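Feature request disguised as a bug: please show the residue count (583) next to Cytochrome bc1 complex cytochrome b subunit in the output. Example input:
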Amino acid sequence: MTTPAVKTPAAASPAARGAAATADYLDQRTSIGTAVKGLARKIFPDHWSFLLGEIALYSFIVILISGVFLTMFFVPSMAETTYDGPWAALNGVHMSEAFSSTLRLSFEIRGGLLMRQVHHWAALLFMASIVTHMMRVFFTGAFRKPRELNWLIGFTIMILGLLAGLTGYSLPDDVLSGNGMRITDGVVRAIPVIGSYLSYFIFGGEFPGTELIPRLFTLHVLLIPALILGLIGAHLILVFLQKHTQYPGAGRTDKNVVGYPLFPIYVAKAGGFFFIVFGVIALMAATMTINPVWNYGPFDPAIVSAGAQPDWYMLFLEGSLRLMPGWEVVLGSFTLPLNVLIPAVVIPGVLFTSLALYPFIEAVVTGDRREHHVLNRPRNVPFRTATGVSILTAFVILILAGSNDLIATHFGLSINNITWVFRAAFFLAPAASFWVTKRICLGLQRKDRELVLHGHETGRIVRFANGEYIEVHRPLDDYERWLRVNYESTAPHEIEPAHDSRGVRRKGYRLDALRQRASRVFFEDRVEPVTPAQLEAAHSHGEHDALEGPDAGQTPALESTVAGGGRRLTEPEDHTTTDARKP
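Example output, currently without the count:
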């Protein structure tokens, strides 16, 4: 009896054997294989909006790569020199070594201008993606427990990004960046008591001093990138340690994650997406000029150009300064320049502080201490959505005000009239946008309720034998119904009376009353999700009109949200009386 031949696997190549031996060597000494195995099996949900954070990460990588190239040729010195190079318009002009090396990078170093523009466009995209990513987190409630710390980390990265931009576009030492630093000096000097000392410390003497560029260079290439890198690492670690948030849908709860494993799905996606982001930035840099410093010339404190604006993410501060009237308060021998303090310190401080603390404010108002891993639909949290839109509206108004001179020249308008319009809009537009957004959210909730109760209109009319005409409605499937009813409608906080049964004033009543008033502001206007009983009555064709809401007798306005009226016919479907919030 012969034994059948057994095929042996082909011998591995030397490279494969070397990689396997290296991996085995590291695993035996670090146990890295267990960590890699767990990381590769990590499940992540799939949604396009999660790419916003990845765009920020990849843009920062492009910033680091291009920044290393620029650092090799840039000279961070304010020592004076005379330019003699290919840009003939500036030949023989006295300028700093910083500006001269910037011109050399732009015209004499092969690929230098491309890398300058790659660096600048990547910085703009980095800030844009961070702001958009934070908007997504805010409007969907992804900042709720246990992610409050990650919200603060992201907020700090955004602030550091602003500082990185401020220190970065000031390095060429041209007229535009010099005007920006002159404004910065004015803001610092406006700080009571310590302002002049801070200015002297920052500039190494009277503005502009001789130490500014080297100090900005150290901050821009060393300190701020190191802090951002550390915070990005902490942010990613927390994302891996905590469950990833996911959008509401059938089968998605706070106890699971529905998605795909990191390896190989998201590894392949992330790698490809990085090159897409890099390619888009390179295409922008190759085709769209940005910050042509050779047109501005070297910085001269006596020159102030019209139509000069900083990058978009700092334009709100410029607009705030332009809108403020020239108010000053003289106290003895001290002058408080309110025309600088209020727009440059108070307004940004209020906007940023409210944004940073909002997760904690909402947690206190709701009293919710549970973990949340399923995101909110913005329409189901009207107050938060309206608050976010009002903050964005104020931000946009300030950005437009920062370009009031360009608006005036391009459209032939009076700059004074434009300024007054923006002053009024800064106070009125956020309030109006808050009210409109809140009403839109409540309207969308009522539309969802109507769809759950009666289904989609089909446009098909049926006539009965008695001559009555009925429109046929198509019921929602289980998945769509789940999406539209599976949310919590938080009611205003109820508190105990101020005095107990013995007439003694209850301890902590004032704090409870304050929290109750705040909860009414947040949640008094709301639409309750459809209950199983209401859904069953709606499918009985009109009988639900007599059905009372869950809070009948307490909130009469709620009964008006129970959709009804008229007789409707639905397409045949096996309706059950089970919980409508389960798929």
